[in-house]
Amino acid sequence: MIAYIIRRLLYVIPIVFGVMLITFVLFFVMQTRETMAKAQLGQRAKPAEVSNWLHERGYDKPVIINTDWADSAYHHADKPWWDSIFINQIKNFATFELGESDFNRESIGDKIRSGMIPSLMITMPAMLVGLFLAVAIALVQVLYRASALDTGMTIACAVLMSIVPMAYIIAAQNLMAITLKWGPAFGFDLQGWGTIRFLMLPVTVMAVIYLGSDVRLYRSIFLEEIAQDYVRTAQAKGVSGRGVLFKHVLKNGAISLITLVVAHLPLLIMGSLLIENFFGIPGLGGLVVNAIQKQDFAIVRAAVFIGSLLYLFGLLLTDICYAVADPRIRLS
Amino acid sequence: MFTGITRALCLLATLLLASCDNDPHPKPVVERGRDGGTPLIRYTYQTEAPRSLDPQEAYDQMSRRVLEPVYDCLLEYHPFKTDPYELMPCMLEAMPEKQATANGGVTYLCRLKKGIFFHDDPCFPGGKGREVTAADVRYTWQRIADPKTECPVLSSLWEYLVGMKGANEAAQKNGGKFDYAAPFPALEVVDSHTFKVHLMKPYPQIIYWMAMHFTCPVAREAVEFYDGEQHNGKRRERFKWHPVGTGPFRYVHERSDHDNNFRLVRNERYITTKFPTEGWEPKRDPACRPLAGKPLPIIDEVQIRILREPTPAWLLTKQGYLDSFGVSTDAYTTVVTATHELSPELLARGVSLEKDVDVSTFYTSINMDDPLLGKNKKLRQALACATDASTQNEIFFNGVREVAQQIIPPGFAGFRKDYRNPMSFNLDRAKQLIAEAGYPGGIDPKTGRPLELVLDTSASGSDQRMMTEFEQKCFEKLGIKVSVIENTFAKKIEKEDKGNFQISSLTGWGADYPDPENFFMLFYSKNFPPEGKNISRYKNPDFDKLYEQMATMDPSPERLAIAYKMVDMLNDDCPIILTNHKAFYSLVQPWAPRTHNNMMLEGGIKYLWLDPALREKKRAEWNR
């Protein structure tokens, strides 16, 4: 298994390199650097300001490789061949030097570090609450399958899935913040236990948004399990309906759940784009949304890099959990 | 196990119940007001985070809103004199004295008020802010020329200030290192509180630059102390995120982050300005009269939130947690009736509605280098007369904006209130003009088909796309065919810089200072892009002559007459098609009445006041 993990970790290098290459091409080859600078400096920027902006950020260097034959206005004959935007960027990312924001030159590393905690404070409880509720509702549906209760819950899930997330946000802000006064409609202040009041609304909304689809998915997983021979055997042996559900169906269905849940665990750090923006949570989701709106490509590139690493890590974690949960699976 | 889970859930529920409170604001920093009573805390918001709080670097409105209350300028706009806008001394004792020099240049003699101190900060010995001197002003103006500062107005100033360009070029040659000890002829220090600004040629607009944050004095100690490096194992902020000013408010670094929250508290040593004793509009008398002559600022603390989405801002306003609200398009129909009045529900709450007209003008630019449009004035006039700016304003801006009749916005010297643009919307005239232009019924006689024109636009949103479609339909009423090219914002700027367009939609200009010269320069032939912003590439020797003459003149009736003439020339020549001056509605809560509505004053929060008891009462009512 250790050899497998090492091999998987080595796969990360070419995959992330590929991701970075595609991202780089999208940002640096599909548009001119002057256009990038003007997006930040505004339409009033004069050529001197544009070239100063590019120079201060190292964007006036050759794009891929500093070649002697390159007929480029950015050619730097006195610099080594590897002194280019792309190679410098790969070098920096390899050492986790994420650079500075194009928008305001703040350290991206600092921004990501400070954004992780608020993001996790929303996504982690929302995932746990959502998972607990979805599994519980799905098990109830499976227990009373093909009954009016099951049909009613299925319709309710379809309704939940059909409502756009914005409607949940607006409804929750009006109902929970204004009518019931359970918490502020907006804002975040890291102040110990007092922070909870800022988390209630976003966590509830986030858990509810995915509840419908999760319940439908888990219900089908558990239904598949309950139709298995071993369940029939257990029932024939006289195991109670609840016992079958918790001891057999839940345990075996958990293997499929692991695939779905564990792969997304590391990505929880990246936060939620929508929720953070609408509830004013200073997390990584909001950071990325703002960076896209501001055309702050330095942050977008760094977020893509971190996101791809976390996703690959999530997949590896899933494989390991799979092997741990199911003795039939051997990683080699 | 279930007992454990139940206990944990009970604990969580207790915690949640205990925390039941919908006030989104963190605890204020200030505990007592100026009189020892309840502190006056203003809760405000803006839609974007600042880019920088370094006065020599920042250029955007969102940065100005945070930094201008922290940094005082040498001069400032009078809060109540907005028609026309008027300057008054701030850090200076009096307005600068203009002195002619032998070589055709001009010198302005300026004297700083005594007893103005920088805010207390660890960058000063003992943490106590020291007095501001003329040497600080010199250092600040040197910073503008320092390439490391990335000052966005450097190239505008070096055209006038003696030695500014040379100082910048010397630093560029020296690997970007600016020599602050070298002679700096642009600003001469006479004594500790007196300095002279030397200009190469007359430029009366320099006084407006003295009211802009670029020239706000900064302390060298602060700039050098906050270098963003590690010192004794602790990383210091960069100066751009640790402002140390002289203004009415101090920036609370510990309670601010750079993306979401900003906290300002009253500067207890502030003596630079006082609330004016006269000049306010009669309708503001109840709010202003009790404050006349009082020390500033009146507010003890300002909490600024970044609310990027309009929905939460409107929600918090309804709850009474924001002291004012800029009416967004989403909230417009809820807030304002069809007759542009406040909704009865809000009126009953005691809320009031204020309309602000921005110092900006929007228009469509016509490329005068285009072989077809550039040479055919009647065709340009036909397009102008076909543009229904009034309907456009009703459809896309709920009729809030002001239809532009002239390039100069309201409040500027040269703006004529009753003036009507002879080339404003008149479809019959437009049809007649296009016939006179050689295209009767919009048909090109050479081809026998409708004349084809191309309209460039930036399609960053559906509103912009629909606005361009509206314009396209206006033009096509002349019988011509108009193709629309949708560009990204940056691509559109690139095309405008290169002159690679025929008609460019949705262009405009927001004033740097309230002088007509700031708009006329957009049509001066030496200001072609990319150096200048003459997007239309308008080249008219008569206009240029008048521009050169008025740009160096002090305000006078003669200068005003020239401005009128230049407006007439532009309206007749039609290098642009005027659309509107930006305007917007704001909701004002009953406890925080406006004392002024000066659009040039981003630091005007020092003149505001509020009634915290009324706010508490209203909040309790509105959150019942």
How would you portray this structure in words?
The complex is a heterodimer of chains A (332) and B (624). Chain A is mostly helical. Chain A has helices at residues 2-29, 33-41, 47-56, 85-94, 108-143, 148-162, 165-179, 196-209, 211-226, 229-236, 241-262, 273-279, 284-293, 297-325. The mean pLDDT of chain A is 83. With 624 residues, chain B is an alpha+beta fold. Chain B is 29% helix and 18% strand. Chain B has a 6-stranded mixed β-sheet with strand order 16-22-15-21-19-20, sandwiched between helices. In chain B, strands 1-12-11-10 form a 4-stranded mixed β-sheet, covered by helices on one side. In chain B, a hairpin with a 2-residue loop joins strand 2 and strand 3. The longest helix of chain B is centred in the N-terminal third of the chain and has 17 residues, at 2-18. At the A-B interface, helix 2, helix 3, helix 7, helix 8 and helix 12 of A face helix 9 and helix 16 of B.
Compact summary:
The complex is a heterodimer of chains A (332) and B (624). Chain A has 332 residues and is an all-alpha fold.
